Amino acid sequence: MGQKFQYDESGGTFFYFLLSFLALILIPATIYYWPKKKKRDPEEESKKCQCTGCIIKREHLKNSEPWKGPKTFLIKLLIVGGWVVLILLAYKVSQFDYEMSNFDPYEILGIGMGASSSDIKKAYRRLSLILHPDKDTGNEKEFMKLSMAYRALTDEEARKNWEKYGNPDGPGATSFGIALPSWIVEKENSVWVLGLYALVFMVALPIVVGTWWYRSIKFTGDQVLLETTQMYYYFFHKTSNVPLKRVVMILAASLEFDKKNNSEIVERQSDNEEVPQLIKKLDKLNEKNKERPLCYMYSIKARALIHAHLSRIPLNPNTLEIDRRYVIGKCPYLIQEQVNCVNQLIMLAYARRIQRLPSIETIENCMKLCPMIVQGLLEFKSPLLQLPHINEDNLKHFISRKRQVKTLLQYAQMSGDDRKSLLRSLSDEQYEDVMKVLGKMPYVDFNVKCEVMDDENPSEVTADAIVTVTVELKRRNMSELFGDATPTFVENNEEEVKDKEINDADAAAKRPVWMKQKKGGGKKKKQLLIKPKMVKSKSEESSVPSSPAEKKEPRPKEKKECKEDDESDTESEKSDVETNGGGDANEKFADSSDDDSVQKSNNEDEDQEWEKLRRMHAREKALEGRSKTSHPVHCPLFPHDKQEYWWTYICDRKSKSLLTAPYHVTNLIDQETIELKFTAPHWAGLYTFTVCLRSDSYIGFDQQKDIKLDVKEAPAEITEHPQWEFEDSEEEDKKEDDAQESEYTTDEDLPEDED
């Protein structure tokens, strides 16, 4: 079989290449990049707050993208132009295919199949006089087809192949065309082709890659300048306990606010007059600090703008107000970087890499600053000022002899008439805005459960065990707590209780085999069949259920119940013996014990299966990545749209140490479950730890719950905890023992006043 490799002389196959390449680009580009105009929903517009701050903010956001209109027009123009070119190419290819598929040399020459060579020559001469391009009636395209037909019929072998196979090359010839025009490999054009190749691949591409790499290596994964991160490490390591005002100074010294490192920063001549005047209005700005870069002018200016924002001081809308919006807009993700830096320093201190250990107050001050920045409020101000139309004059009505309303939660739980009376100075439209904003604020159910997952007994915490604290967050709107909606809310709860009872009954009927209880078994047997898994986390209750040793010696309050249970069990056993006889009873107890052991093993197998499924689900969820969309935040003084985020972590208040890295919750829409893990203390005893939840958007929504761990000594036959799969040398064990001894404080070691 013959094979022929040739470049595209006519340009047909090159059009195929262009057509497919353009279609591969245009189809996904049209789907993803075609500008979609959002329809304005009148109801959605009516739900938005109509306070002065929100109106100004929406106007600024609308005008902050002046290039959005031209960019949309340019994208539409490029996509439409691409589709026009695609349609023209498709038409040209279709015409080319039509001509090639209808090529018949006998029809073109106007002769029959058995025509002689002389007839072929006569027909060619006659038609060439008419179609030759030099003639008045000439047609170059038709003349080329005429020439091709003549050549195909004058060659005897080609004519036979055509008449027999319909192909002048014969049955076995295969032609491979390269979809590039032949002029690319012509000798005359080689210099230009090589020059273009060198320009694209040896000059343009290295420049683009080098520029991207040079810019990317200056930033961390969260798009913070590496020099800024290093500066955070230096100052937070320098002082173990950093107060809130010092955190603001470090934040203002970020190199994102320096024109040398950020070309978006604008320096004006008017700053020399306006910034000093602004500094005079602010108290204790500490502008005379000599530390670098805290003493640089860009740092002092940014610090003054942050303090003016927190104090809600109006600024010149044409100069400093523009700078304030830019500086404040970058603060949340810079504060998140500060939290990460302090956390890394704490972990390095635990690993004995550094000597100075940052205190828990430092990282909490960083977290505390974020909602202050978002809401534009100082630390000691009332959280009620986060509501629209509320000022210092309105706050006088919230605190009186009759009422002491200091939080948003207290205000939401009041009756409608009382809420309205407190804001009687506002108009109906303003009061409606207050209720809109308050109703959309978060009310989070914060539940904590504690267990040791990988141990045989998950309810018992032994020394050096890995403790898993499951934090369950359920977010609701504050409108569910409104006092005027309380009767409806209670009725709904009663209906929910009834539905729950019905569902529980259905669930009991459809309960899986491994969860069913044996009929006739006493309370004692039920307790043996059900193994406690999760631990209560309330501060008044112990977080560890009683161990088997403790069950033998119950507490005074529980002794009566245990006695009654034992008596009832023994009485039932005696009655069985009396009615059925001793032998039958023994067989019955033997059978029941066998059934219990089988059911226990089945329960353990099912627990393992459920645990595997849970881990697979958690792994899949982690691979999917976390969303950064939750609920919009009402923050008229913050220049950008903000979503609700949260931090949750575990700390030891007594030793002022951080047990887990703060987990940044960015996707709390309705419900979210987080697992926090830490190593239990090395020494046995009763320990109290605190699980914290902090908002990065609102002031006054922080929560914390205490968990108590009754740490037991590990069994003597177990030299290592089963969760650790590596071995340490004796010296490292000794160092860890010393570290654990100084890291935590038991409740027994504390003075009475600290408890």
Describe the structure.
With 755 residues, the chain is of the alpha+beta class. It has 3 domains: 3-186, DnaJ domain (Helix Hairpins, Orthogonal Bundle); 221-379, Orthogonal Bundle (Sec63 N-terminal domain-like fold); 445-475 and 508-755, Sandwich (Immunoglobulin-like). Helices cover 51% and strands 10% of the residues. The chain has 25 helices and 10 strands. It has helices at 12-33, 42-47, 52-63, 68-101, 105-109, 117-131, 140-154, 156-165, 190-216, 226-238, 244-252, 271-281, 297-311, 320-350, 360-375, 392-395, 408-412, 416-422, 428-440, 486-509, 523-529, 548-552, 556-580, 582-624, 730-743; strands at residues 3-8, 174-181, 442-451, 466-477, 646-652, 657-658, 663-665, 671-679, 685-695, 703-711. The strands form 3 sheets. Strands 5, 6, 7, 9 and 10 form a 5-stranded antiparallel β-sheet that branches. Strands 3-4-8 form a 3-stranded antiparallel β-sheet, with no helix packed on it. Strand 9 (685-695) and strand 10 form a beta hairpin. Helix 1 runs antiparallel to helix 4 (68-101), helix 10 crosses helix 14 and helix 23 packs across helix 24. The longest helix has 43 residues, at 582-624. The N and C termini lie far apart (95 Å).
What ranges have pLDDT less than 50 throughout 5 or more consecutive residues?
A: 485-590, 724-729
* Shape category: elongated
- Secondary structure tally: strands: 10
- SS element count, helices: 25
Helix proportion of residues, in percent? 40-55%
Strand content: 5-15%
Q: What is the top-level CATH class of the largest domain?
A: Mainly Beta
Q: How confident overall, as mean pLDDT?
A: 76
Distance between the termini: 95 Å
Largest sheet: 5 strands, antiparallel
Protein name: J domain-containing protein
Organism: Brassicogethes aeneus
Biased composition (Acidic residues): 725-755
Biased composition (Basic residues): 516-536
